Each structure stands twice: as structure tokens, then as C-alpha cells.
């Protein structure tokens, strides 16, 4: 299969990677760059576990070709805190108990980040709608929703 | 323990939380080894077929292919993937009927061959080039059909596909006489549904042999030591030549109570002489791993006019699929739930275990108790309707009390059903809502309840043997070495809280080594909600031994007797003279580094084997709205009152209950694990057609922890996680009945089934 070198900006850093036309963004992240925080739970875009942000937009990385996002800014769970100890969402997921097995957690946090970037003061129902595509088998979503509300409040008060 | 607690009972971050929110936590698929190969399995496309010939020559020639294995390459050793035969009091009842790879396919998805190659596309191409000549045999997909004379025979030993009839000793009194004395008898047959675990991490495993022949296996087992022993038996290896590592686990719920793809992975790694990673796709996980045990369960209840339950009888067909796996154990637990929840003088139960050509089932959260209690709780409502009594009052009338035997037969130290039912009823406004004037429109409101008791381990039916080891570091922190698998239930966090409380340390002062058979002591593993109650004691015992050594060393240094010393917040002081104090770290360091020749690595080993098995109690109320035009059920509100004893970490206990609510909602309303009755092919093998509950589907929920510490528990704690669905499911079913007067004997209660039931108005009281 044809291979080529493509450039990506991932978590604020430039990367030069050999890609094939059929390589997905999640394969690029996980297999080529060892950014394994992005999870594969279905690989067909049905669960939200692989959600990353491409130019700030939530994107299912398992269903996105790597080549289609070359030269774009990609944010994964590994880059979320950007040098700080933790992003308010990460802290809130810990404090609210919104994590159990943790496999859906990175995808849910990235989706929540996109949600809060767009709507800094969401209602419970708006959070449910925003995270409606992120499956979790453990938590019943109750404390995940609590976490997003908690993070939203922190961020509105200026906590970044 | 009456003193104020500083770590136990606090809402602390779960163990591993920081790694999980940053993406640093490593799950199986995230682990890479040098030279690792990609494994893939060839599954049978036929529900029932004998393999006449397998030609792997073309597959072996594919560049990059390092190993191809078929039934001819694996040990001719029958096994049962369920670990329980190693610890059961009656191991002979868990039959061995499975090979690593078989020369006969017994369901669509049975494992026929496997390949290992340098990359996934080579492995896939090799699979496609394996030429299998099958003799396709007639197949049977329903246990009732499978028992008929002339049905295809699935296992040679099982006449009429019956593996065993359990004429269980779950019987007391005289059930026939009981029914004669009853004023009302209700009988109904339920087909309790299967569902798939759908842990978000697809089933994955790595096997690697070292040059000296020692095998390391990375797999998310709930029972690393027992599964190690199973692998040792299958492959004829000494146990010590196998190291089992369990990394972070992406959900389990009973899934890893069975050996899964590990034996295939080992066979590949052995033949290839290189490490192999076998990673299931979601689709493969659906058809290729165990789902919830099914029962065709005929329940019969006899009640007196005053509401007392006088007789209970249960006859079951165990619809376990193509292999036996957990048929005995889940059936026994099912019977325990059905016969043991209420006071009843006359009970009887029996069951017949049957094979058919569908994917094998196994043990899933609730492990039979969910199915037995669900049937019982719907019959209790039905009986209450027939005698014109509030079902809540019937439950209060028959609820067990402290001193009564639990569903395991062991007397209970506490029993809070009565208080919890009354508390929940008051919070829910049960009386007014239940006695409301019923609506006549198309949107009908309904309210229902269910109660359940579960277990804190499997005492007295299996060996329950736990160990923990604690050692101190120079800075006063400690390591806890324990073979507990954190599946999301936060067992390790709870154990750390218990250890820190006992040692006088802070939560963050204890570092954990877990899930490695080489560096931890033996433990039977995570099942039956036994971790917190049982390993908790092993941790306390280890901590007390370590503390004894610590105080002895401190006593010499401070010139005070050990019994006068106390540890708090990493400092040791004399109770009689608090000015005499020293840091824990100083004492540990001095014991390690001194020229007196009195050296000690301060540490403690603790073991525990229980004699009791205190059940956690659940009382759940559900409100629904059913649309009689569309058949859709909208769950409006769920109130869950639970008695976990002492909640070691209330936040993570609540999390278990909230998660169970979602799983029950899916089980009752949306999760349809059906198998095509003509082809044996699974109808739903992805998340588009197999509908898990999403955030949008969640109703209002409220969880109340009604904590009544149990005297025998570590700080009063009991188990909670496994039993958390059991009362939720029947409470939803009973609410649906309350709304529209129909009930569904085969979940899920899809709109189609509700409409059909409304149309036929099945006469069930």
C-alpha cells in the first residue's frame, strides 16, 4: 500500500508520520505515536471512546482517516492538561466519582471539553445530550454528569 | 472501631483515578512488547459441524505468518473455563466439555483455528486461506427442542442434550402441602433473558514465553491464581512456570470469571516462539465471549389471605448454550435467590441443564440470583394483587429478620429490610401513588418495587481464601501487595482505605502492587462481591502484624511499652505522654539501618477465611410511564435504598448502584441478545443494534445508603457490587405491570412485546 509522510499537530507539537491511505486517526495516535489514552471499544463509531478534538471539534478518531486531518490541530487526552497538573474536567471526574473502569473516560472527557467550550453553563439535560454518544457500562452516567457540571462551575470561576 | 474514622467512610478518589483521567492507565490493548505478533481466531460459520479436514498450508506461506494452530496443535485436554471447579465444595458438578480448539463446532463462533503474524493484515489474509472441510450437522437452537428425542446430539456424553438434572437439596418443609394450605396460588413461566456484558474494553490477552520456558500472561482475569492453575492443567505446565499479570481492566461484571481467549493465545505464542497479542473486535466479543445465563423458569407461589407466603416452588430448564461453563453454579445461586429471599416454610426447586447450538453463557453480574429474584419478585406482586393486598405490605409481612438464614443458609447478623422498605416508601410517597386513581388515557403511570439480598463472597459453597502483605518504606509510607483486580468497582481503593485506617496512615501513604501472581500472595479472586468483606480482613490482619512490629521498634526508641503507643497521621506517640513521639519513617529507617544487628523490614502478612457471609440488602422503587399506543416505556424515576454495611467509600458504593440501575434499564428495555432460531447467528453484534443505555436514557435516580455496619465486616463493610442489579430489574417490571396490567415474561420489554401483550391481554393477575 502507498505510504507517505504527513504532518500533524498533536497536543501542540508537530509530528511527521508515515501514513497509509487506510490508516485511521486512532491507529495513528495509538500505534504510530503510542498515545494510547485514546481508546478503541468498537472501532466503528458507535461508542465515543475514541473521541479527540480536531481543530476544537469532537471527532471519532476510529472513523476518521489520518490523512484527512493532516496539518490540523489535534487534541487528545494526553494533551488536555497542557502542562498543568490536571484540567478542571479531569479533576472533576476524579472528585465526583465519574470514573469506574476508566475505559470510556478519555473519550467522555474530550467530548465534555468540546461541550463546555461551546456552552460554558450547560444544564443537566444539555450535558446528557452532549454526551449521548459516549457509552459507559459502569457508572450509569450520574456522576459523569455531576463531573461536567462541577468542571463547568470551576471554569466559569476562572479555573482553567 | 468505635473511635472516629479518618480514612474509612470518606469520599476519596478511586484507586488509579489520576492515571485514568490523563490517559496514562494501561489496558491490555495499550501494552506493547518487542517482537509481538498479532493473533487472530478462525471462528466456525456453522452452528454444528464436524471438521473433516483442515489444510493450513496456504495460510502458513503468507509472508509474516509465524504460527497457525488447529485442534491438532493443542492439548487433548477437556476443561471448563469457569474457575469454580477448583474451589467448589462439589467440583464434580461443573463439567469439563471444552477444548482449546475443537474438531467439532458447536455454535456459530466456536474456535476452529488461529494464526499469529507480524501484522493484522497478514493474519487476516492467513485466516482466509485456511481451508476447512466441514461436515455440516443438523443443529438445534432451543433447549426445549434440544431435549426432544431425535434432536441433534451436541456432546457425546449428554443424552437428549441434558448434561445434568439438579435434584437439589434446596428444599424444606412440604411444598405440596403448602400449596394446599394456600388461599391463592400463582404460577407462571418466564424465559429469563440473556444479555451481553459489553464491558467497553474488548476481550484482549497477551502471552509470552521466556527462553527458559516460563510463560507470562497479561489478561484481565478476576481470578489470576485460579486461571493460572487452569492454564497449567491444560498445557501440562507447573504453576510456578506461569506468571499472570492483570493490568487495568476496562470493565468485567463477571466476564473474567471464566478463562476466555487465553488458552488460544498461549497455543499461538508457544508455536510461534514469540509473544502474541490476541485482541477481539467488538463483534467478536459479542459472539465469542460468554453472555448472561438463561433460564426457562416456572415459578409457583402460594400465599395466605393475610399475605404470608406459605409455599415456593421453582422448576427450571437451564439454557446454557453449547458448553456447560457456569451452569451448576448460576443455577444454585438462582435457587438460593428464589427460595431464600423471604421467610417461607415450604420450598422446593429443581433444574435440568440443557445444551443447544448457541453461544455459551456464563456468569454475569447477579449470577443467577438476578434471574431467580426477578421471577420471585414478579410472582410476589401477582400474589398480592390476587389477595388484594399492597405488595409492599406483603413484602413487609414476609421479610426476613436478623438471625434468620440468608439465601446462603448462614444466619444473618443484621437485616434491615423492614426499615429500608419503610424508609423508601416514605421517600417515594408509595401509598398515595400506589393507591392513586388509575389513568384512562394513552399515557399510563406505574409504580413498582423490588427487594433483594446478595452475598459477601461465596461462603459456604466454595473455598474463600484471601491474603495480603504490607511492608513499610523509610519515609513512613507502605506498600500493599494484594492480588485484587480493580475492575472499576474500586476494590483496591477500598482496601487502601482499610489498610491506612488500621495503620494510622493517610490514604495516599499506601502504594499498591496488585494483579501479579509473582509478587502477591494467593487469593481466590474477585467474585460474588467477596473482595471488600474478605480481603478487607486480610488487609487488616496484615496491617496489624506490621503495626505490631512497628510499635515494638518504636517502644524501644521511646522507652514506652508498645501497648501505650498509638499511630496517627504517620506519627507514633505515647498515649500517657504525647510528648514522647517519633515519625513512622524514623522507626522504619532505624529498623533497617542500625549497627546493633537487630534488623527488621517492618511488614505483615495477613490471611482470612470467612465463616460468615452477610448479605447486602437492596430495596428499589421505580416509576414509569407507558404509552399504550406506541408500547414505549419511559422510566421516570428510580429510588435505590441499599445497606452495604459500612460504606468504605460512599462515592464508589453509590457508583456501583447507579451503574447497576443503567444495566437493569438496558436489560429490561433495550438489550436484545437474541439468536436467530433458524441459523444460530447472533442478531445483534454491535452497539447500533444492541442498545446500551446512554446518558439520555437515564431517568432521575436517587441512591440512599442505609448503612448498618455488620459486626463481622472490616469496619462493618459487606459486599455490594455484584448484587446491585437484582432488585432494580423486577422493580421496573412491576412498575410496567402497575401501569398497563401486562407483564413480559421474556425481557427485554420492547414496544412490540408490550403492544402484543396489551392486545392479547394475557390473563395474569
Folded structure, characterized:
The complex is a heterodimer of chains A (160) and B (765). Chain A is built from five helices and five strands. Chain A has 160 residues and is of the alpha+beta class. Chain A folds into two domains: 4-79, Beta-grasp domain (Ubiquitin-like (UB roll), Roll), CATH 3.10.20; 88-156, Orthogonal Bundle (DNA polymerase, domain 1), CATH 1.10.150. Chain A has a five-stranded mixed beta sheet with strand order 2-1-5-3-4, sandwiched between helices. In chain A, a hairpin with a 2-residue loop joins strand 3 (51-54) and strand 4. In chain A, helix 2 crosses helix 5 (142-156). Chain A starts with a strand and ends with a helix. Chain B is of the alpha+beta class and 765 residues long. Chain B is built from 19 helices and 29 strands. In chain B, strand 21 (478-482), helix 14 (491-503) and strand 22 (510-514) form a beta-alpha-beta unit. In chain B, helix 15 packs across helix 16 (584-592). Classes of the chains: A alpha+beta (160), B alpha+beta (765). Chains A and B meet through helix 2, helix 3, helix 4 and helix 5 of A and helix 1 and helix 17 of B.
Strand tally of chain B is 29
CATH superfamily of the largest domain in chain B: Aldehyde oxidase/xanthine dehydrogenase, molybdopterin binding domain
Q: How many individual domains of chain A?
A: 2
Contiguous helical run count of chain B: 19
The CATH architecture of the largest domain in chain A comes to: Roll
CATH T-level fold name of the largest domain in chain B = Aldehyde Oxidoreductase, domain 4
| String of helices and strands of chain A | EEHEEEHHHH
Which CATH C-level class of the largest domain in chain A is it? Alpha Beta
CATH class of the largest domain in chain B: Alpha Beta
Strand order of the largest sheet of chain B: 3-5-1-13-10-11-12
Mean pLDDT across all residues of chain B, rounded? 96
Structural class of chain B: alpha+beta
CATH topology term of the largest domain in chain A: Ubiquitin-like (UB roll)
Overall radius of gyration of chain A:
16 Å
| Quantity of strands of chain A, as a count | 5
